[in-house]
Amino acid sequence: MGTYLSTPDTEKESESGSTADGWSFGISSMQGWRRSQEDAHIVHQLPNGTNVFGVFDGHGGREVSNFAKAHFADALTKQKTYGSDVGKALVTAFHRIDELLEDRANLEEVNSLKKDPRKEAEGEGGSSSEEAAGAAS
Fold first, then answer.
1. Long-range CB pairs of 120-123, under 8 A, 24+ apart, other chains included
2. Which residues in the chain land under pLDDT 50?
């Protein structure tokens, strides 16, 4: 069936917690029809006390969402407008993530993020849905 399952995986993974300054959060995700979970989330307190909460959608592979998760907070705080215009800083931080993804120097890291840690723990390896689609073709 290509990159999709014949029935959805409806098992939910949930997490909750609170930030150092007392903001409570809850996260829940479901794989659905895709062959593997591709989304990643971030809960990060920045140096100025601002909290970043976000969801990154894999859109065909977990490596990009996991890369964004790993680098977004740093990309945001390095924007010139970080302290004065949060909206503009957010937009330029996403553009910076795009630039980092296009930089061949980051290719090894991006490729390392394709593995499904849940399947690795079960001893099955794991790959992105793009690899699964390629194998099915």
1. none
2. 1, 126-137
Angle at 130 between CA 125 and CA 136, to 5 degrees: 85
Amino acid at position 47, single letter: P
Contact 2/133 with Cβ under 8 angstroms?
Answer: yes
Q: DSSP for the chain?
A: -TTEEEEEEEEEEEEEEE-TTS-EEEEEEEEEEESS---EEEEEE-TTS-EEEEEE--SS-HHHHHHHHHHHHHHHHTSTTTTT-HHHHHHHHHHHHHHHHH-GGGHHHHHHTTS-HHHHHTT-----HHHHHHHH-
- Say what the pLDDT of residue 136 is: 34
Q: Which amino acid is at 90?
A: L
Q: What is the C-alpha separation between 1 and 4, in angstroms, rounded?
A: 6
Q: What is the pTM of this model?
A: 0.78
N-term to C-term CA, the chain? 10
